[in-house]
Design a protein that fits this description.
It is built from 9 helices and 18 strands. It has about 425 residues and is an alpha+beta fold.
Length: about 425
């Protein structure tokens, strides 16, 4: 009996992935722990390790295949003593591995047949036909999705309707509706003056989660202006001190040394983390049965990557030094852009930061990333005229917009968090403690 290799769930929320590359070929001997493939999720590219020993007898899903559902069989292993030649043509196999209800419960998906020339399509079966052969799993799914199993032609044994037939009908109906909606929108544009760029899995996931957030999370916003001059001076002193210290212990040429520098964003991360520690009532997540109050400040920081966005997380940022935060952030951002983050490095987090200041954006509001309850939107630092003791002065100011989940955090508490954050930014020695 061949051993099935299935599309793994690389994170708790993963529903499908792309098979980027096979690292082994048919006929190769495989041992547990061997890296056999690379899978792309909506956030990262990850290696898949074998859990069984055997010979790779058949690759069912080729490299480059997109949108493979979790638990789909992607390859088969033969154990010692089994004849590889007996399973050289999986598509034509009639074994119960691929057609029985047991296969359905394992999530096995048959390879789709190639599209052929137009052929005769049987008319829909009458819904009055009481003798409908369908598996229990197919019937349950049809009831849940409102599909009439009597209208379907089964591809299972002896024409039996199986789960895959119901799913195909649902997908066809959804695609028809989407196509109809797209056609209605495209009629406003001149044919030939646009191109359709298909959505990748990351873009689809981002769109889905942002729509869900705006539709289900009651956002409200708190805005605060922070003076940056003291923080910028402290940052400059710290970077100079680091440079001098490295020069003092190094015997190499000064120009050959790369001196790590603190960024304003590093100091903002620490300020947010400490503000949450000082206002613990804001460091929460909304759950249906209660509020989850977090013991530490795990800060997600938005990083722009090719065709998308990801938020690597600085864990326990309230307990870490600026130097550690800076080092971790640089390393996480680098691997994020290479799609090399592990799920635990971007999933979770208690609060997020989105900084568009480097693009010259003065102010903006960000969408909350559930189950988090707060996200900080950081604007650019710019010189403005401000009044001090009734006298106009020039100061470097930064506008921060805080988006808050009103289910979890009330207005007064959000205002306290904003005031605490502002105090830390304007008195930055406090973030060194």
């Amino acid at each position: 009996m061949p051993v099935e290799i299935t599309m793994p769930a690389l994170s708790p929320t993963m529903a499908e992935g792309n098979l980027a590359k096979w690292l082994v070929k048919e006929g190769d001997r495989i041992n547990p722990g061997d890296v056999i493939a690379e899978i792309e999720t909506d956030k990262a590219t990850m290696e898949v390790e074998a859990v069984d020993e055997g010979t790779l007898a058949k690759i069912l899903v080729p490299a480059g295949t997109l949108g493979i559902k979790v638990n789909t069989v992607i390859a088969l292993l033969t154990e010692e003593g089994e004849d590889i030649k007996k399973i050289t043509d999986i598509k034509s196999a009639t074994s119960s591995i691929f057609v029985s209800d047991q296969a359905e419960t394992k999530g096995i998906v048959l390879p789709e047949m190639p599209v052929a020339a137009p052929v005769f399509t049987p008319p829909p079966r009458s819904t009055k036909d009481t003798r409908v052969f369908a598996s229990p799993l197919a019937r349950r799914l049809a009831i849940q999705k409102g599909v009439d199993v009597g209208s379907l032609y089964g591809t299972g044994p002896h024409g039996r309707v199986i789960k895959r037939d119901v799913e195909t009908d649902i997908k066809t109906a959804d695609a028809t509706l989407k196509r109809s909606g797209d056609d209605q929108l495209l009629q406003f544009f001149t044919q030939g003056e646009y191109e359709i760029i298909p959505h990748n899995s990351m873009r689809k996931t981002i769109a889905k989660r942002l729509v869900e957030s705006k539709q289900t999370v009651p956002h409200f916003y708190v805005m605060v202006d922070c003076e940056l001059d003291a923080l910028l001076k402290l940052r400059s002193r710290l970077n100079k001190a680091t440079h001098s210290a490295l020069m003092g212990v190094s015997q190499t040429d000064e120009n050959s040394i790369i001196v790590p520098k603190l960024s304003v964003n590093d100091m903002i991360i620490k300020a947010v983390a400490l503000a949450l520690k000082m206002v613990p009532g804001a460091n929460v997540s909304w759950l249906e049965d209660g509020l989850a109050r977090h013991a530490h400040s795990d800060i997600g920081v938005a990083v722009s990557i090719n065709n998308g966005l990801i938020t690597p997380i600085i864990r326990h940022a309230d307990e870490k030094s600026l130097k550690t935060i800076s080092s971790e952030m640089k390393e996480l951002a680098s691997r994020a852009r290479q799609m090399k983050l592990r799920p635990e490095e971007y999933q979770g987090g208690t609060v997020s930061i989105s900084n568009m200041g480097m693009f010259g954006v003065k102010a903006f509001s960000a969408i909350i990333n559930p189950p988090q309850a707060i996200i900080f939107a950081i604007g650019a630092g710019e010189e403005r005229v401000v009044a001090k003791n009734g006298v106009p002065n020039i100061a470097t100011m930064m506008t921060v917009m805080i988006s808050v989940d009103h289910r979890a955090v009330d207005g007064a508490l959000a205002a306290e968090l904003a005031r605490t954050f502002k105090g830390l930014i304007e008195n930055p020695l406090a973030i060194l403690a």
